[in-house]
Design a protein that fits this description.
The structure holds 2 protein chains of 2 kinds. Chain A is mainly α. In chain A, 82% of the residues lie in helices and 0% in strands. Chain A has a single domain, classed as Four Helix Bundle (Hemerythrin (Met), subunit A) (Up-down Bundle), CATH 1.20.120. In chain B, helix 2 runs antiparallel to helix 3 and helix 14 runs antiparallel to helix 15. The two termini of chain B are 34 Å apart. Classes of the chains: A mainly alpha, B mainly alpha. Chains A and B meet through helix 1 and helix 6 of A and helix 7 and helix 8 of B.
Chain lengths: 199, 540
């Protein structure tokens, strides 16, 4: 096959650029949020009151903790302690799954209350409320998709650490997966106050 | 990997690790083969979309229904636009010549991420196929125009979702290509090649790539929002649900105006390579050209509002966007002056690539100056949504980007295939294409000024003169293009063997064999001087 480069700096640079694009992707949604929040301040406040701030806070803590554990797994690999690194990756994945389970119940609860776009109850709400829930589903849904992608990357990293392709000399794959995971966390840190705390 | 000793010089086209022929292409991570994959896919789609364009011109030969009804016409201009914009000109030069020549020009063996590069092509093909499906699937071809303006794109019963998804996927491919090129330019320049020793085509690719990376996600999320609006009933852009249709236009043009620079910057880069070679003179104003690419990329980000002067945006924002639109014309003009100054006093060799490049300048100037008519607030209102706009952007996109693409093909064809096309036939095809182009698009300026709206399949009898001339031009143009394509195919099959440096170029692409070996260079060259340093015969 063609020439393969082993350029860890380049790979990391590529990941950072990809992260920029992800931020711009969410940036479009944040922009739309800002416009509608300005237009329908009241509606956004009253709709946000329907979200469960406790679950939101719990999920924030979970994601922050998972960011810490993924960072620890990278440090562990760098120091040559692959066993510890594997454990930290597993903890990160478990935390991610816990986040998703919470999300599942949160969305499920909303669906039980018939609060989803196009439902009869939704159509009786004010325009601000409708837009808030539309954005809520779109933004947290897209974020959840990124959580899933992040988990897949972490799983691949797990097997790479296990079979030794990621090791103390060459850990760029794990490092990039970790960067991606921090991105997932970072976006949530903005989503959380905008969705749950604007009441 | 095989040895790359001087005794084992196999061209990249002869390097066939797989037994089944096609696998050597679709599994190859060689940047040169991927460049050709893009070239062939773009050519196929170009013929399809050009044919659709011809159908539109035939329809307008006479007022009233000529060969198709209004709804078919809507579908044809929409799919023509989607294919031309998203499948041909946005990847266009960057994907074909960027892939093929960027690594060679900076003295690298490949791009930074060869597998990702191939993956981008697969995504591109997936998007292109979706776009084709949107034309033929049961709901009817999308009829929104390539701009997908809401609320119509949220309501239209045609296959808009297919087209939106196609554009989203093609954007993803564009992002990955841009990312790849940025890292390539940062990490893989040959030793000694500082930023200001880099040839100017890589500079333009660098600016392009940053726009691709930073602007494309915005249109991605916007298209996703329209999809959500159609499928999940979320009313981001629907006033009945509290949304704002103008917001869509902002988000769309935040990407789609910089996208114009994604198209034109690599085109400028290609002609910048051509002028010094055929004038046998160093480029005039190297740094000015390099930095004006970056300036265009930066300022081009903030002019999107000039697409929206008639939507009722505030006075000051119109003023501001109009002002910046005039500013962004400055770096483009700087480039034009530098190209002309490069030719001044040079020993000009009027070969086909230079002819196409000069054609590019001529048409791009007309397109650029009429762009200022559109950028000025008062005149914009008069010509908004008329065929004046259609003529303007075809002069920029086809006359600019398209002609530069053909210039690049004529320039690099001997390097890419190791064969030569017929020079005389190439000159003839240029002249026919150039005449056909102007006969096709120039009348549209005039009837546009007189009030002929764009996207109408019918018109008042007073516009017929212009439409008839324009349709005749379309046939001339098609003939010219087919002669050119025929010349290329014949050249690739049984043309003369091309020497390594047929044009006496001095950049790295002309210092290696034609066609290049798998890894381009036996040894990575060490760069000691500025590019475009021409030496006298006896010194060389």
């Amino acid at each position: 096959m063609s020439h393969e480069f082993n350029d860890d700096v380049g790979k990391k640079m590529g990941m950072w650029i990809f992260i920029f694009t992800e931020l711009f992707l969410f940036g479009g949604l944040f922009l739309v949020y800002a416009v509608f929040r300005a237009n329908y301040t009241e509606g956004f406040h009253s709709a946000a009151a329907d979200l469960d701030a406790f679950v939101g806070t719990l999920n924030t803590v979970i994601l922050l903790a998972s960011s810490a554990t993924v960072a620890m797994s990278i440090t562990a690999v760098q120091k040559g302690n692959n066993k510890l690194a594997l454990r930290f990756i597993i903890v990160t994945v478990i935390l991610a799954l816990a986040f998703m389970v919470n999300k599942y119940f949160e969305w499920g609860h909303k669906f039980d209350l018939k609060l989803y776009p196009g439902s009869e109850i939704m159509e009786q709400l004010g325009k601000g409320e409708i837009l808030f829930f539309g954005l809520y589903y779109m933004m947290t849904g897209l974020h959840a998709l990124h959580v899933i992608i992040g988990v897949v990357l972490l799983m691949i990293s797990y097997f790479k650490v296990k079979n030794g392709t990621v090791n103390s000399q060459k850990f760029i794959f794990l490092e990039n997966s970790g960067l991606y995971w921090h991105l997932v966390d970072f976006i949530w840190i903005f989503l959380f106050p905008l969705m749950y705390l604007v009441t | 990997m095989e040895s790359t000793q001087a005794t084992n010089h196999v061209s990249y086209l002869q390097h066939k690790p797989h037994k089944i022929g096609i696998l050597n292409w679709i599994l190859s991570t060689d940047h040169k083969r991927i460049g050709l994959l893009y070239l062939y896919s773009i050519m196929v789609f170009f013929i399809v979309a050009a044919f659709l364009g011809l159908l539109m011109r035939i329809e307008k030969f006479a007022p009233g229904e000529t060969i198709m009804d209004a709804q078919t016409y809507n579908g044809v201009f929409t799919v023509h636009g989607i294919i031309m914009i998203f499948i041909i000109v946005i990847p266009g030069l960057a994907a074909v010549f960027g892939n093929f020549f960027l690594p060679i020009l900076i003295g690298a063996k490949d791009v930074a991420f060869p597998k990702l590069n191939l993956f981008s092509w697969y995504i591109y093909i997936a998007g292109a196929i979706l776009a084709l499906i949107s034309q033929f699937a049961s709901g009817g071809a999308p009829d929104t125009g390539w701009t997908f303006y809401v609320p119509y794109s949220a309501d239209s019963s045609t296959n808009v979702i297919w087209a939106l998804t196609a554009a989203f996927i093609l954007g993803f491919s564009s992002i990955l290509t841009g990312l790849n090129f940025i890292v390539t330019i940062h990490r893989l320049r040959a030793p000694g090649m500082s930023w200001f020793r880099m040839p100017l085509f890589p500079w333009s690719i660098y600016a392009t790539s940053w726009i691709q990376v930073l602007a494309t996600p915005i249109v991605g999320i916007t298209l996703l929002m329209v999809i959500a609006e159609r499928t999940l009933n979320i009313g981001f852009f629907d006033p009945a649900l509290g949304g704002d249709p103008i917001l869509f236009q902002h988000l769309f043009w935040i990407y789609s105006h910089p996208a114009v620079y994604i198209m034109i910057l690599p085109a400028m880069g290609v002609v910048t390579e051509i002028f010094p070679t055929f004038s046998q003179k160093p480029i005039f104003g190297y740094s000015a050209i390099a930095l004006s690419s970056v300036a265009i990329a930066a300022v081009g980000y903030f002019v999107w509002g000039h697409h929206m002067f008639t939507t009722g945006i505030s006075y000051w924002s119109r003023w501001f966007f109009s002002f910046l639109t005039f500013i962004v014309a400055v770096p483009s003009a700087i480039k034009v002056f530098n190209w002309i100054s490069t030719m001044y006093g040079g020993s000009i060799d009027l070969k086909p690539p230079l002819l196409w490049a000069i054609g590019f300048i001529f048409l791009f100037m007309i397109g650029g100056l009429t762009g200022l008519v559109l950028g000025a607030l008062a005149t914009n209102v008069h010509v908004h949504d008329t065929t004046f706009v259609v003529a303007h952007f075809h002069y920029i996109i086809f006359g600019g980007m398209g002609f530069a693409f053909f210039a690049g093909l004529h320039y690099w064809f001997p390097k890419m295939f190791g064969k030569m096309y017929n020079i005389k036939l190439a000159n003839i095809s240029f002249i026919i294409t150039f005449i056909g182009f102007n006969v096709l698009y120039f009348p549209l300026f005039i009837i546009g000024l007189q009030g002929m709206p764009r996207r109408y399949f019918d018109y008042f009898p007073e516009y017929q003169y212009g439409h008839v001339i324009s349709t005749i031009g379309a046939f001339i143009l098609i003939i010219g293009i087919f002669i050119m394509l025929f010349n290329f195919f014949r050249g690739a099959r049984k043309g003369e063997i091309a020497p390594a440096n047929p044009w006496k170029g001095v950049t790295l692409d002309w210092q290696i064999e034609s066609p290049p070996t798998l890894l381009n260079f036996d040894e990575i060259p060490v760069i000691t001087e500025k590019p475009y340093t021409f030496k006298k015969e006896e010194e060389a």
